[in-house]
Amino acid sequence: MKKQMFWLLLATVWLAAFRPADPLLDVGAKMPKPDIKMKDVSGKEVSLNDAKKANGLLVMFSCNTCPYVARNQERTREICQYALKHNIGVILVNSNEAERTGGDSFDAMRKYAQTQRYNWYYVADKNNELADAFAADRTPECYLFDKDAVLVYKGAIDDNPGNASGVQAKYLHKAVDAMLAGKKADPNATASVGCGIKRKM
Question: Smallest Cα–Cα separation from 139: which of 68, 45, 35, 34?
Answer without folding.
Answer: 68
